[in-house]
Amino acid sequence: MAVLLLGEVTDGQLSVDATAKALTAAKMLGEVTVLCAGAKAAEAAAEAAKLDGVKKVLVAEDASLGHRLAEPTAALIVSLAGDYSHIVAPATTDAKNVLPRVAALLDVMVISDVSGVVDADTFERPIYAGNAIQTVKSGDTVKVVSIRTSTFEPAGAGGSAPVETVSAAANPGLSEWVEDKVAASDRPELTSAKIVVSGGRGVGSEENFALIEKLADKLGAAVGASRAAVDSGFAPNDWQVGQTGKVVAPDLYVAVGISGAIQHLAGMKDSKVIVAINKDEEAPIFQVADYGLVGDLFTVVPELTDKL
Amino acid sequence: MPPMKVLVPVKRVIDYNVKVRVKADGSGVDLANVKMSMNPFDEIAVEEAIRLKEKGAVEEIVVVSIGVKQAQETLRTALAMGADRAILIEAASDVHTDIEPLAVAKLLKAVVDAEQPGLVLCGKQAIDNDMNATGQMLAALLGWSQATFISELSIDGDSATVTREVDGGLQTIKVKMPAIVTVDLRLNEPRYASLPNIMKAKKKPLEEKTAADYGVDVTPRLTVVKTAEPEGRKAGIKVGSVDELIAKLKDEAGVI
Ligand SMILES: Cc1cc2nc3c(=O)[nH]c(=O)nc-3n(C[C@H](O)[C@H](O)[C@H](O)COP(=O)(O)OP(=O)(O)OC[C@H]3O[C@@H](n4cnc5c(N)ncnc54)[C@H](O)[C@@H]3O)c2cc1C
Ligand SMILES: Nc1ncnc2c1ncn2[C@@H]1O[C@H](COP(=O)(O)O)[C@@H](O)[C@H]1O
């Protein structure tokens, strides 16, 4: 079987981590061709070609593909779909935007956020904020699947796949890009970091979030947040961890001033080690924490940062 | 541009506060006698439609729900918030039957063809199946533009400018109208329906249809093989001090 994997390309750069994790799942389904699309994508394609187990890389460069707009990207994938039994992508916001559109154009269902591959037709995925894991078998001719990256190890390097150029499909011209607001940061990326330190409503303000950031920097960690912290303006939206934010599974997750609502747990409960710092000893977060410290974060966090 | 009609699909789902239980036989999640509510994202979509109407950009708000007969209650809630008219498409008789996004999108396309709205406001995802697909699928079937996961919306004649919540931060795009918009949590805070409005909503029109009326086959493409509890996680220990925590993380867990 032949699998088309949509590489995660942002402004010409391949997100190697997300793509390599989805590749691990894609390889269980058949021979993998990676598609790199963008206004510029040649460099991303060269990176993708180095991933272990990639058979071929397709590169599509066109101005219309520059900002991951759904309509031209979906049109491109549909134009290539005939050759593949599976169309796969890491379950990023870009893929969640594009893949259902692709699936509907092919008159098949999309299978979102797959956390396990049983066989070429059968997949596991979390439902109800991860309160249940459903196994579904697809009867469709083409399987369109997004992969939850937090559950797959990244494929290694060492490949040298051939790169072929394909042309973009006609741009439906339905939308245009205006602006990206991306905060530049030297910290590791949330979904690939080995350690994540997250703050919740208990942190109290945007200024106080510096406490969380200092602890994170001491640990070389990424910074996360609960929805309440983001809604309150303490932290930017792309830090949100949970059912409707990012899903992370680092070696160490430190939850500070977070109560542990099920929607938050949905995004972090597969972390290897969980630490909770909360002044309420009844907080539900302690039910999933390996190490709980009951205390006031305003004394505990600075002390921890100092002593590390 | 004259004020337009807005269509808002609303799904009846298990209330987000309910602790979900997987049925012992692995056949699904227990939905008998649990509190059901409108999908939280759809409340935000209804609220946004009402705000657009209050600003004069929208003339009529039509809400649609697809599923079991009981989805009427969800529609009445939307009417009580301020929607004008409701359509129930009965497509299942058992509360445990979930209609897949592809079938929902096909039914919604039929409704769009009949109602000719200028805008469809969907939720970004249903909190039961967590699919995040219906809006995008509907946009594909109609050949319309799509603006997903939005936290800001402004409509300006024949285009709309939206801010989208994406992995890297925020993205602003401009889409041609008519458009499919899927809303994220930070777009607005939905209002509660007042008692008088709840009473009034009982008299608002609610049309009952079936999937067959639209000639749409809702047979699922995905067969559910089984539904299981996720791997549990046991509570660990409480440490008494920062020093003890550091020692545990270094020596026992080996993660720092
Ligand atoms: C549809 C839907 C989707 C959602 N998606 C998400 C999601 O993706 N991610 C997410 O996080 N949430 C999500 N939520 C929200 C979720 O239900 C909770 O409301 C949210 O996670 C609560 O955030 P919190 O724990 O920071 O705040 P709270 O629940 O208010 O908890 C604050 C905690 O801080 C502690 N605290 C306060 N002061 C101190 C102090 N000085 N020292 C130590 N501890 C202190 C308190 O004891 C408390 O436990 C969603 C909700 C809905 C309805
Ligand atoms: N059965 C349904 N009835 C009405 N609207 C629905 C239904 N299923 C999905 N939707 C709409 O599509 C959005 C996304 O759902 P989903 O693709 O299932 O995650 C929801 O927030 C609703 O706006």
From TrEMBL, chain A:
InterPro entries: DHS-like_NAD/FAD-binding_dom, ETF_a/b_N, ETF_a/FixB, ETF_alpha_N, ETF_asu_C, ETF_asu_C_CS, Rossmann-like_a/b/a_fold. Its cofactor is FAD. Residues 3-181 form the Electron transfer flavoprotein alpha/beta-subunit N-terminal domain. Binds 1 FAD per dimer. GO terms for molecular function: electron transfer activity; flavin adenine dinucleotide binding. CDD domains: ETF_alpha. Keywords: Electron transport, FAD, Flavoprotein, Transport. GO terms for biological process: fatty acid beta-oxidation using acyl-CoA dehydrogenase. Pfam families: ETF, ETF_alpha. SUPFAM superfamilies: Adenine nucleotide alpha hydrolases-like, DHS-like NAD/FAD-binding domain. FAD binds at residues 201, 226-227, 240-244, 257-264, 278. Belongs to the ETF alpha-subunit/FixB family. The electron transfer flavoprotein serves as a specific electron acceptor for other dehydrogenases. It transfers the electrons to the main respiratory chain via ETF-ubiquinone oxidoreductase (ETF dehydrogenase). This is Electron transfer flavoprotein subunit alpha. The lineage of its organism: Bacteria, Pseudomonadati, Pseudomonadota, Alphaproteobacteria, Rhodobacterales.
TrEMBL record, chain B:
Its cofactor is AMP. Residues 26-218 form the Electron transfer flavoprotein alpha/beta-subunit N-terminal domain. GO terms for biological process: carboxylic acid catabolic process. It comes from the Bacteria. One of its GO terms (molecular function) is electron transfer activity. PROSITE patterns: ETF_BETA (PS01065). Keywords: Electron transport, Transport. Transmembrane segments: none annotated. Belongs to the ETF beta-subunit/FixA family. Heterodimer of an alpha and a beta subunit. The electron transfer flavoprotein serves as a specific electron acceptor for other dehydrogenases. It transfers the electrons to the main respiratory chain via ETF-ubiquinone oxidoreductase (ETF dehydrogenase). PANTHER family: ELECTRON TRANSFER FLAVOPROTEIN BETA-SUBUNIT (PTHR21294), ELECTRON TRANSFER FLAVOPROTEIN SUBUNIT BETA (PTHR21294:SF8). This is Electron transfer flavoprotein subunit beta. It comes from Albidovulum denitrificans.
